[in-house]
């Protein structure tokens, strides 16, 4: 807990300087980690900082150095594996790769007012840039109508990035889904149902478009069940509907949780995976390899995504930025939930 000065205010840099017996310039050099301070002096200043409980003011620091060391992150309130993994990856990359801390503003809705309020908070902290984790298509119109005076990188589709005028970085959802469907076709499946994600999510739209493209290219019939969520419960309901017939030989689910629900519904209905029906998911969440059977799925490298987001933002802060959206490749991971269809 920080001590109070004689005037009742929190301790400042001058208080640290007085306690350490040095100038405030020396305290500033220690705080900003310059090399022009003798080791014993640095130790004395750090000891005074610890004893007083001094915390530097990011806004005041930004006025002097033009750098606050803070990045703002706007994200959804979703606890889903994808958005939460992206948020963690961005926070870790900001700290480890660039030495920045993050301030996070979770939004229930991506409206202009909600984004403006979050930006007002960030600007009060003198953030140097903003990352927006925007999986919802509604974010496009909202971002396009809001002026953001600092560099912005959005984890969203290239289309949403162009429409809203921000730098976009994303995983290749379309390419990954094509790999999944092509895998099933190559195994010999001809009746491949897609359990699609909810409306309004750009990942769901991309994965659905890829499934359709591969099926049409192979001249195969289109059958789809649209889930109203991303969870195993929605997948379970979709699986029960499919088990009621006609039963497909394969299912491509829009994410691993939907796939898990489908597998459980088939098991409840007496259908075996992959003997009766093959199932593929998307995400490769940490438990996918331990499903029963282990799930064939599409892997997203969230750690690399976070690093690319921060690298792009740091480049933009320095005055340079890529003109094209960055799309990271995804990779099919084949496990025991897929097999050739029965003769």
UniProtKB/TrEMBL annotation:
Superkingdom of source: Bacteria
Q: Does the keyword Membrane apply?
A: no
Identify the residues that the record assigns to the HTH lacI-type domain, covering every copy.
Answer: 11-65
One GO term in the molecular function aspect is: DNA binding
Q: Which UniProt keywords are listed?
A: DNA-binding, Transcription, Transcription regulation
Pfam families for this protein: LacI, Peripla_BP_3
What is this protein called in UniProt?
DNA-binding LacI/PurR family transcriptional regulator
Organism expressing this protein natively: Brooklawnia cerclae
Top-level taxonomy: Bacteria, Bacillati, Actinomycetota, Actinomycetes, Propionibacteriales
């Amino acid at each position: 807990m920080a001590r109070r000065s004689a005037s009742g205010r929190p301790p400042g840099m001058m208080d640290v300087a007085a306690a350490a017996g040095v100038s405030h310039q020396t305290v500033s050099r220690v705080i900003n980690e310059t090399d022009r301070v003798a080791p014993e002096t640095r130790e004395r200043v750090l000891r005074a900082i610890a004893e007083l409980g001094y915390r530097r003011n990011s806004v005041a620091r930004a006025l002097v150095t033009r750098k606050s060391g803070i990045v703002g992150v706007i994200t959804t309130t979703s606890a889903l594996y994808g958005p939460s993994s992206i948020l963690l990856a961005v926070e870790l990359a900001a700290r480890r790769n660039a030495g920045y801390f993050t301030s996070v503003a979770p939004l229930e809705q991506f409206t202009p007012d909600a984004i403006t309020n979050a930006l007002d908070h960030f600007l009060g902290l003198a953030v140097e840039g903003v990352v927006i984790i925007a999986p919802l298509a509604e974010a496009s119109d909202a971002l396009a109508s809001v002026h953001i005076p600092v560099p912005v990188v959005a984890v969203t589709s290239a289309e949403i990035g162009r429409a809203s005028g921000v730098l976009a970085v994303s995983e290749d959802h379309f390419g990954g889904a094509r790999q999944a469907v092509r895998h099933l076709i190559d195994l010999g499946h001809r009746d491949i149902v897609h359990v699609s994600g909810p409306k309004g999510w750009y990942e769901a739209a991309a994965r659905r478009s890829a499934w359709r493209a591969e099926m049409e290219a192979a001249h195969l019939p289109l059958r789809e069940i649209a889930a109203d969520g991303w969870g195993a419960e929605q997948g379970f309901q979709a699986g029960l509907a499919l088990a009621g017939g006609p039963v497909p030989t394969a299912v491509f689910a829009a994410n691993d949780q939907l796939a898990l629900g489908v597998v459980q519904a088939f098991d409840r209905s007496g259908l075996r995976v992959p003997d009766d029906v093959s199932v593929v998911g998307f995400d490769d969440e940490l438990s996918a390899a331990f499903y029963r059977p282990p799930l064939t799925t599409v892997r997203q490298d969230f750690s690399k995504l976070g690093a690319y987001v921060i690298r792009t933002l740091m480049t933009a802060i320095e005055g340079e930025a890529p003109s094209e959206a960055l799309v990271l490749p995804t990779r099919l991971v084949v496990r025991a939930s897929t097999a050739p269809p029965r003769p």
